[in-house]
Amino acid sequence: MFSENGRKVKIAVVGLGGRGRGWVETFLKMKDADVIGICDIREDRIQETLKIYQELGVTCDVMTTTDYNELYQNPEIEAVVNATSWQVHHRVTIAALEAGKHVGLEVGGANSVQECWDMVRAAERSGKFCMPMANVCYGREEMTLINMTRKGMFGQVVHCEGGYGHDRRPQIGWGDELGHYRQLNFTKRNGELYPMHAIGYISKILGINRGNRMLSLISVSSKAAGQHEWYLEHRPDTPFANQQINQGDIVNTVIRLANGETVMLTHDCTLPRPYSRSGRVQGTKGLWMEDKGQYYLEGAKAFEGEERACWHDFEEAMSEYEPKMWKEFRASGKSGTHGGMDYLVGRAFVDTLQKNAIPPVDVYDAALWTAITCLSEDSVSTGGFVAVPDFTNGRWMDRGEDVCTTAFSLDREV
């Protein structure tokens, strides 16, 4: 699985901020991947990325450009990893698919449901895959949870929670100088801006798009106070100190599913807090809670001879139910950022290219997960439930053989 001895794939990366440069480095460290094209609208980021090649001692012809359409005309490039800003995410992806390139889509929300449909249609017409680079799907904890739920450890899963709790006030507040897209989005929008971290592995647990689907959602936003106070303290003499911030400090989104489960996502980036993805999986036989780092199974012994509800360290569960992929990964000596998740999703991407296979997460997942953003904006603005489109057009009921069967699959035993 991690031998890196397969056919060498040729990849381009569009968008060379932190995530884009991270993908360049991740792929360049693989023996069977070359990054032969890089693109960003900022020349300084291109030059910064070229230093990675030098630092790693990689010598290959690499095309550099500030125009992604120019990059897509290169016939040697078979796949593109899109790490551009949320505003242009989908149009960059659609253009790549229409140019006959496979796409790895970095995390980010959609501007409209229409562009999600356009992305689906472009993938279907071109026959090329669009794989969300949702690295949390390959986290050790998250894959262990997928394993446990498939073994029925939590019984029937009734409710899941997840989110993005990350104090991003400095990144947002200095976005104009850093060239970071978050600033504009937090200023102008109000909704669940970052759903993919949580909804990815939850979708696998609940079979979303593969036997289950989202029906509707409702989002509620708090007032916007945290970022404004940050501006007053850190940038009082700039126009930002008096600028209106639309994005609420806390946005909660509840999603109803066809099979009866509920999901709650929480977006929390403009108040002081430690990092958390706020995970929770609860079923008829027990539950797991990320922030406690613990889980509970019905009938667990608290004291010798006495039965009562008792939390257990989730590390114990991981030692027993850790997926085969993670055992092999740790034994391989390989490493990667975000605790190894980036390497694993990168390997899944390369493996899919090499085998011309169905990706473990696909364009229907990409459309659905990113559509949560614009749908939640609609809900916040109207104060009610909004319907969630079925991007599979009914195929969610029975995907048949249209699922990933490689070693990196998230749809079978992990």
TrEMBL record:
Q: GO molecular function of the protein, one example?
A: nucleotide binding
- Key word Hydrolase present: yes
Ranges where the Glycosyl hydrolase 109 C-terminal domain occurs: 143-301
Is Hydrolase there in the keyword field?
Answer: yes
Q: Coiled coil: which residue ranges?
A: none
- Obligatory cofactor(s): NAD(+)
Q: Which UniProt keywords apply?
A: Glycosidase, Hydrolase, NAD
- Recorded E.C. number(s)? 3.2.1.49
Question: Which residue numbers delimit the Gfo/Idh/MocA-like oxidoreductase N-terminal domain?
Answer: 9-131
Query: What is the similarity comment for this entry?
Result: Belongs to the Gfo/Idh/MocA family. Glycosyl hydrolase 109 subfamily.
Q: What protein is this chain from?
A: Alpha-N-acetylgalactosaminidase
Organism name: Acetatifactor muris
Highest lineage ranks of the organism? Bacteria, Bacillati, Bacillota, Clostridia, Lachnospirales
